Amino acid sequence: MSAQVSTPNDTNIEVTSRRGRPSKSPTRMAFERFMVNKAAIISTVVLLLIVIMSIAAPLITHVSPTHQFLSSTDTPPGPGHVLGTDQSGFDLFSRDVYGGRVDLLIGFVDTVIVMTIAMVLGGLAGYYGGWIDSLVMRVCDFMFNFPFLLLIIVLSAIFNTTSVWLLILVIGLTGWPGMTRLVRSLFLNLRESEFVLASRMSGAGAFRIIFRHMVPNVMGVMVVQATFAVAGFIAAEAALAVIGFGVKPPTPSWGDVLSNSLGYFTLATEPYAWVPPAALITITILCINFIGDGLRDAFDPSFEA
Amino acid sequence: MKRIGKGSMATIALAASLTMLVAGCGSGGGSTNSSNGTGSNSSNNTSTTTTGQPVDGGTLTMAQGTKFNDELIPDMDASLYTANVVGYAFDPLMNIDKNLNFVSDLAQTWTWSSDKKTVTITLANANWSDGQPVTSDDVLFTMNYLASKAYNTTLQGQYGYLVGPVVGSTRIGNGKATSFASTGGFKKISAKQFSITFKTVDAAVLWSDISSIQPIPEHVLKNIPISSWNTASYDKQPTVVDGPYTFKQVNGQDSVEYTANPNYFQGKPHITNLVIKTVSPDVVPGLLANGSVQYVLSGLKPTDVAKLKQIPGIVVKTPPENGFSYLGIKDYLPEFKNYKVRQALEYGLNRQAMVDGILKGLGTPISGPLPPVSWAAATTADGMNPYNYNPTKAGQLLDQAGWKMGSNGFRIDPSTGKEANLTLSYSSGDPTVQAEAVAIQSDLAKIGIKVTLNSPMDFNTLASKVESNDKSIQMWLMGWSLSIDPDPRGLWMSTDAFNFERWKNKTSDQMINATWDAAAFNKADRKAALIKWQLYVNQRMPLIFLWAPDNVFAYSSKLNIPNKDFSSQGPLNIQDWWLTQ
Amino acid sequence: MGTYITRRLLGMIPMLFFITVAVFLMMHAAPGNAFNSIMNPAIKDPQALIASLEAQNFLNKPLWWQYFHWIGLFVTGNWGFSFAQHAPVIDLVGPAIQNTLILSVMAEIITLAIGIPLGVLQSRKPYSGFDYTTSVVSFILFSVPYFIFAILLIYLFAIHLRIFPAQGAVGTGPNAGSLLDHIYHALLPALSISLVSLAFYSRNTRGSMLEVSRKDYVRTAYAKGLMEGKVFSKHVLRNALIPLITFFGLDIGNLVGGAVILEGLFSYQGMGLLTISAVNNRDYNVIMATTIIFAVAVLLGNLLADILYAVVDPRIRYN
After folding, report:
1. What keyword terms does UniProt attach to this protein (chain B) (predicted)?
2. Which residue of B has its CA nearest to A74?
């Protein structure tokens, strides 16, 4: 179910068509409300373009983002290099184009990881309550307090790598407590609702109640939260890169390109080096936030004034 | 005023370990097209450094890219950045001059006994800032502090080695004695004259160790137990000093304010106020450009140099550093045992192209253990092979060593019979080092050697793995900043802990011993011995020498530093500097 | 309420125990320690020096011994000695906490003082030109990584206009270290944080206000003929702020955490820089101290948020 998070529109369409009812379902109505939100629609288009650019990077530039042009480091934009090269001799345009792969991968995969953990743990805690609830909440408190940077250093030293997947793992393993608390509170409310009581009376098992009845009910809120989570993880990648805990170089990422351009002279005299990655990060996050906002309005009709 | 020996001991990589944010301190370095030791003066405005009459007054603001620790008793803290702060207030026994020769400072003269075991030192007519004279007792007090058990254990001091060669240091260190005066290591002759006796005859000991001692005032500190010095108010802001500047105010780890010491024995400094600030390396050039900072002590990157030169009113100097970057290899591994393989690696790296591309030309390729700036460095005229880039020759050497080319363009390691795949490790935080790693990988691929880059690791992890002979380490990138004295011990003896390559070679050891024995008290003989040893290292190539980077110094043209005070390791004698008002 | 608070405070103890054990084990699982980076060729016998430093700091003892030794000293107020900075940990943590608190309290004040009124104003006339413009602007602010703001602020105010300092927590001269000096130095970094979080607060305030204004009890209040101002302050605003308390509670935990990147860019010696340099240098005692401080702050922040809930919302009772 979590996989559907990645493209909310498709999810809605799919759900509707499968049910195939002529009358408008709540999801269908939500979808229609989303479609009239101009900012959200434009954002979706822009985000799709960025995703396509990252995936189709080799079609956009033939220069490898990890090829070092040792004889032309720090060059300004010119024929060979659309946005010039950085101090190591890497082509900046190519790194900007390819860099989105890492950022988007981290954003989406970590969201899936975090939503999955949150659904399972938060769902169990909220459904059962009692000692399970206490235990899960204590683990949440524990993870909230865990020094994240220490975890990265230790894991990268143990595994001898700081690959994208290690970074995804660490962010995923430390990012779930907030979402878990949210799911738990939603489930706590739902637990006492009439339709859950009804299905319990009719002898449905816990598994069935959770996944057939409760999960679909919180899906709307979760999709919205997931969108914001994607934006948050992309920002986290950039921040990690700036303090030197980003993905293994020379793998390109927007955060990496940006963090190499924070020196005074680059900022003052080489906008072509730092503006594109900064803009790509900001635009991506902005689009995702607009989409999330649009989804929230769409799923919660009471929000329309 | 740069600390002799001690100041330069910090390794390149040590600086990198301080914080990830500080990219490029030291290790990036830079290097230059010139090897004459003066560097290139790029200013549009060179005249200001030499002409005009000194004017008194003004405030000089300096910036460092890494914070200091507010532990300001000399030698309490190991950081280079703390040593910079301490160095303007405390003078060492000996200083260096423009050409890196040792010259008088607090120690006015020194003479060796005929058995070369005892040196007699006469102190200059220097006073503490409270008017008391700097005496032999102060030197003894300082030596006892450095050797004491409290300093070496409770305070975890790292400079006990400065007095290690003095007779009785071991007994003081384990608490069996408290003073060199009672162990026979120190003899007070008069208030201004004393002699120090060493355990062995050693031509390097005066330069490597004793010269760096910075006396502290006995009359101020004698009543405080050494073990609690780190909480004494004197440690946070020393009140009585003997250097050109006295502490006015220490603002935590943010900045230090000084005023000129009117009683400084080498003359009252022209500049009245001095400020050292900690500034992020990303911001340093901006503050220099807008005039908030007049001199940058550390934190400039090679990439900043060309841009700084374009700003009017800024002087940039890039003299060669007394240190080198290298590609480390574990010499005992079967793949590196044959020195022809090591020579092939040296020939196979286009070091000049890397210097030009990555360091923006701010460095000099080297092929031996002493950088060109050292007085004892061997040159091609002495017979050094420069190992100019020559992939053909590298290929031939590999063929001779049995590294046959495989079908897919990569060579077969004869010790395993399989395709060679060397791993290269380096530390994170500095984009320059990473660029070097990528360049080395691509150059070695051209001579058929496959290299895999490990993920960059933080410096402590790399250091621990290199030191402990970790199996995952085959080759690594690091650098050394060397002490002014060219003594090879510490890095190059077979038993040295910092001989990370584990190069065990009796011939080299014997040659090193000849550089500090009784005969080496004659400088010419010592140089001859050092050259002989360098030629041997040059031929055996125990590690792959890359280049000597350049230091980057930049300051406002309003700051006038006499040419005689500009050594390749930085400007000296701050009391001679002055500000155009 | 009193017993509730006591129970919560006691509940923190096992949590702190588990956190410190876990951090302690993680730290020691990483290869290398603070002394591996001593690389001074002038030291004749570095291995002996390193061994003696390790023994001095009990690094050669079993891990469980080290842990209980550390915690035994910690609870008596002896936080140990920093390996990397040669100073008692408490001397390092003290100024760092002070700096970070000044910065984060200022940031919080700016955030709340602008964010909440802005959100309220937007909600008074939803979908007006004002609401639309400020919403879009705050949305953009919210989406820009805060270190980009920091860099732009330094560039504009410190380097170009030269009206604010680019570095440090205190200045120089006779006023160095005064409260005013601290505030002057913390303003740019505080602003960098606030620009992002005030967007977040105004957004949530607006949403919350709109939602509450539609509630039945608000309609009832109007129907009763209450004055607009009275309904607003007594019924709408008070109820709309309740959800924001959760965010505020989370912020409190972060007040002492420090912002690593920001502090690095401003060379601001706070908890963030202290923590990251301790992690990089394997400065165990400092890592443990900052971990505990951070954990206590987060747990207290949660507690405070819960108490504030009860204060603001009379329906909530703890016993």
Report:
1. Signal, Transport
2. B303
